[in-house]
Amino acid sequence: MGKGKLAKFADMAEYPHVFEYPYSVVDDVPFDMKGRWKQDFFGNDNPIVLELGCGRGEYTVGLGRRYTDKNFIGVDIKGARMWTGATEALNEGLKNVAFLRTNIEIIDRFFAPGEVDEIWLTFSDPQMKKATKRLTSTYFMNRYRKFLVPDGLIHLKTDSNFMFTYTKSMVEANHLPVEFMTDDLYHSGMDDDILSIRTYYEQQWLDRGLNIKYLKFRLPQEGELVEPDVEIELDDYRSYNRSKRSGLKTSK
């Protein structure tokens, strides 16, 4: 029988590579490692890569296995899910993998300017009702700028046509440099080691015949970011663990 939530949270509290700072404690507990992740935790000067909304941590752990010359931090608020990847990383002795349990809305409180090199957004909730909740909105991009290196990389991997179209429109509206873009990743010729890491839910979507979209772009520090002024058709299916939409057909 698998562990329950309370047992998982108890495990996480003892894991040396898991840091827990949800909204309820972040104002009262300073994060002393801000600006010192490489020195105080990883013990090296390798680039730091974040996975925001890491879920079970499959991508964070998969990247850590493949790229020992980089440091990976999975970020999510749902600790019971994160326990899976955190436990795998601990059991495998992955010294370049850590997890941060917190709200992504306050992610800039945990990293100093220029401390992070790349961000991965893997199957983020498209948040079709409210733009400011989308992890590729200008609301979040301005937060990423606070700790990303100049022209830092952002990777979006999604099953959602809405999220892909919105992000593409945001990138175009702000003239952000695009490294690669495809609406059918596994038939794009770019199915490399990084992109071939498949999460549990990704495999479910692939089995349902859904295309996986991928967008890789850079985020310069200069310039004011603007939201795209476009109407986007809502996704025509109900994805895993996402609530039913209203009767609207499009959204901004």
Automatic annotation (TrEMBL):
Catalytic activity from the UniProt record: guanosine(46) in tRNA + S-adenosyl-L-methionine = N(7)-methylguanosine(46) in tRNA + S-adenosyl-L-homocysteine
Job of this protein: Catalyzes the formation of N(7)-methylguanine at position 46 (m7G46) in tRNA.
Highest taxon of source: Bacteria
Sequence positions that bind substrate: 129, 159, 199-202
PANTHER family listed in its UniProt record: 3-DEOXY-D-MANNO-OCTULOSONIC-ACID TRANSFERASE/TRNA GUANINE-N 7 - -METHYLTRANSFERASE, PENTACOTRIPEPTIDE-REPEAT REGION OF PRORP DOMAIN-CONTAINING PROTEIN
Protein name as annotated: tRNA (guanine-N(7)-)-methyltransferase
Keyword Ubl conjugation: no
Family named by the database record: Belongs to the class I-like SAM-binding methyltransferase superfamily. TrmB family.
Endpoints of the signal sequence: none
Claim: tRNA processing is one of the keywords in the record: yes
Residues where S-adenosyl-L-methionine binds: 51, 76, 103, 125
Ranges in a coiled coil: none
Molecular function per GO: tRNA (guanine(46)-N7)-methyltransferase activity
Protein EC: 2.1.1.33
An annotated GO cellular component: tRNA methyltransferase complex
Pathway annotation from the record: tRNA modification; N(7)-methylguanine-tRNA biosynthesis
Family matches, as Gene3D superfamilies: Vaccinia Virus protein VP39
One Pfam family named in its UniProt record: Methyltransf_4
Keyword annotations of the record: Methyltransferase, S-adenosyl-L-methionine, Transferase, tRNA processing
